[in-house]
Amino acid sequence: MFPLPYEAPLKQILYALFALEWMLLCGGLLLGRLNAEQTGRLPRPLRMLLSALLVVAAFLQWHYGSGASVARPYALLVFLGMAASFVGDLIMARLIPVSNRLILGMAAFAVGHVFYLSAFAYLLRESPPVGVGVAGFGFVSATFLAFAVWAWYSFVHKPDRGKAINIGSLVYGLLFGLAASLAILLAVADPHYVGLAAGSLLFMLSDLVLGNWVIRGHVWTSVNDVIWLAYVSGQLLIVYSVAAAFNVWR
Q: Any idea what DSSP says for residue 74?
């Protein structure tokens, strides 16, 4: 991922956005006041700002940093994935009024995962993992899909929430399980993508904790802070994996 493979001033702007994201996140967690529900210290405006800054970083890398690089389609797909996630954040924060916040928020994040899946598949097509082969690809993907089903059943599934929520969350879990498996394969192919794999796993963790809270109903002190710490860290690594792709192909 680092050093960033861009010309000035884009390089400096992206370094500043990376640092600002961490400063705002850590500052909010350390200095914020625990809300009345005892679920978190990060206020809603700060959470939305953290997500919006990630969209900006993804857009800048695609629009101004990609040029004629082979990584340009990857940069676009990551930008679209982060943009869809931002829409999901706005829905979940009740800033976009919808009839069913949970279902439509999950749908927006699912669209984001589809874009990420497409991005990772593009990289795998351009630089297939050496020595992994079809059998290895199938094993890694099957392992993560099996984990996604187990995690959904163990931590998210709740029969009395209805079929739509349970089936939707299962499909969503399969999407992020498959995305994580592709990210792991990319890291096996090239150590430039280790950050991407870590980001995908952190995103998966944030989704599991969120599902355990809003669907299973397991609430504990600062649960939303844990979700946002994993979510922002994961998305930040995914967004800046665009720089890793440019480093590979420059």
A: H
